[in-house]
Specification:
Blueprint (H helix, E strand, L loop, with lengths): L4 E4 L6 H21 L9 E5 L5 H9 L6 E2 L12 E2 L3 E3 L4 H11 L3 E5 L5 E6 H11 L10 H13 L11 E3 L5 H10 L4 E5 L5 E6 L10 E5 L15 E7 L13 E4 L5 H11 L6 H14 L10 H14 L3 H10 L9 H6 L2 E6 L2 E10 L2 H5 L2 H15 L3 E8 L4 E8 L2 H7 L9 E4 L4 H11 L1
Parallel strand pairs: 1-2, 1-11, 2-3, 5-6, 8-9, 11-12, 12-13, 15-16
Antiparallel strand pairs: 4-10, 6-7, 9-10, 14-15, 16-17, 17-18
Helix pairs in contact: 1-7, 1-8, 7-8, 8-9, 8-10
This protein binds manganese (II) ion.
């Protein structure tokens, strides 16, 4: 079975990472249907996420009748990527003859032995049966007349119960387990097979040494990032087959040339929408609205200086196809974010936070967009305590939080840790109680991170 290709945004997903993944997976599935030759298997593209769904994304997906994306913990190869599903089984009460017949019939080397309630009990393999037969020669000793005794023993063995030969000391795996670890265990064991059990103790798969001889890689398409530290764990072991992004070119590497589409647009969703037009794929209204929502959150309803003419043109196009007014739709999307007072501080600071490497140091720049700046600042003490905790726990040089007021069009800077660089770059003292108001600063990427990285 060919495994689906995952379309995934960055860690700590924002609305663009979610919606660009949804939109691009839709586009790729349409293209796959168009381009796959008859008789060939159509590849499947599945949007996934690396963290909690932002509240506005949950709202957008629900409004447009799209199932929430599955969350994945990593892209390392898993046991389920190589296992043979639904292994052939035999009751522990069956005879060796019946086991032999099943093994021949299915041309396999191992059978799952089951208990009376069909749960897994052990394995019986061709090798165990062969060893049993070889053992019959023990009766030979030095007297030729004993050959009859050997033949008799062999005949008896056919009626012997499977139970007597069942190996119960078998490596047990979980389908979501890391393949790398399974391989190590399997190579160190005497048996050539390992069994995959579900939570109820039923055998759902079997993994043999030959299954793991060539390590399969999981295929992924990255959207809205091309930086390893923002990518799924295990990205170095996966096969990145495409990248669609609007961030600076960073450090994800590939073994082969790939489609790497990077444009200085306001959102990845903008680029995805352009791809629908370029490839001449019909854009349904609900996908248009999903993409529009991401364009609008990433560009703060086109107020952010990252907004390009292309974004404005695409927003209008998506509004027409999606039958909504872009600005009104944007306000509805922002309104769907939880009210400030309800947001736990971990989310307020952490939901949209990104790590950056500045020389030898790692810094964290977080952003919280709001329509109620006062409400957020009323929680300053709680927020700063949490920022200090984050800074210590991850040894960040500093943690900077931009509380962005999208109506007033500016950001309040709060900083913890060694914020010398922030002070110097912006000519402020951001450790002051209440923080520092930065009028016109809306974009973390262009107006904050870029300046700090250049400093
Ligand atoms: Mn983005």
């Amino acid at each position: 079975m060919t495994k689906p290709i995952m379309v995934v945004g960055h860690k700590n997903p924002d609305n663009d990472s979610i919606c660009a993944a949804v939109g691009y997976a839709y586009l790729k599935n349409e293209l796959a249907k168009r381009e796959t030759k008859e008789g060939e298997k159509i590849p499947k593209y599945v949007p996934v996420r690396l963290g909690p769904l932002p509240p506005e994304s949950a709202w957008v997906l629900e409004q447009n009748g799209i199932e929430p994306l599955d969350m994945i913990g990593h892209v390392h190869a898993r046991v389920s990527d190589v296992m043979t599903e639904n292994p052939i089984s035999i009751s522990h009460n069956a005879t060796i003859m019946e086991a032999g017949r099943l093994l021949r019939q299915h041309n396999i080397r191992a059978l799952v032995v089951t208990n009376d309630d069909s749960t897994y009990r052990g394995l019986i393999t061709t090798r165990m049966i062969a060893e049993r037969y070889v053992a019959a020669t023990d009766l030979l000793v030095d007297n030729a007349t004993n050959q009859m005794a050997v033949a008799g023993d062999l005949i008896n063995s056919l009626g012997q119960s499977v139970d007597e030969l069942t190996e119960t000391d078998v490596i047990k795996l979980h389908k979501d387990g890391l393949l790398k670890e399974a391989v190590e265990d399997l190579m160190a064991s005497e048996l050539r097979e390992a069994i995959v059990l579900d939570d109820d103790g039923f055998a759902i798969g079997i993994v043999t040494r030959s299954d793991v001889a060539h390590r399969p890689k999981r295929k992924v398409i990255l959207v809205d990032h091309n930086e390893r530290r923002q990518a799924a764990n295990g990205i170095d072991e996966a096969e990145v087959v495409e990248i669609i992004d609007h961030h600076r070119i960073a450090d994800v590497t590939t073994a082969n040339p790939i489609k790497f589409l990077n444009l200085p647009a306001g959102s990845t969703a903008t680029i995805v929408a352009m791809e629908f037009r370029r490839q001449d794929v019909e854009l349904p209204a609900h996908i248009a609205r999903v993409l529009l929502s991401a364009l609008l959150t990433d560009t703060v309803i086109m107020k952010s200086p990252t907004t390009t003419d292309t974004d404005r043109e695409i927003a209008q196009y998506l509004g027409e196809v999606g039958e909504v007014d872009p600005v009104e739709y944007g306000l509805a999307v922002f309104k769907s974010r939880a009210v400030n007072g309800d947001v736990p501080v971990e989310k307020l600071v952490g939901a949209d936070s990104k790590e950056f490497q500045v020389g030898d140091a790692t810094v964290l720049i977080a952003q919280h967009e709001t329509v109620d700046l006062e409400g957020v600042l009323a929680r300053e003490e709680e927020i700063r305590t949490y920022m200090k905790h984050l800074q210590k726990e991850h040894s960040y040089e500093f943690v900077l939080l931009m509380v962005t007021d999208i109506v007033a069009e500016g950001s309040q800077f709060l900083c913890e840790g060694n914020h010398r660089v922030v002070n110097r770059v912006f000519n402020i003292d951001c450790s002051n109680k209440g923080g520092t108001w930065m009028p016109g600063v809306l974009s973390r990427k262009k107006q904050v991170a870029a300046k700090i990285l250049e400093a």
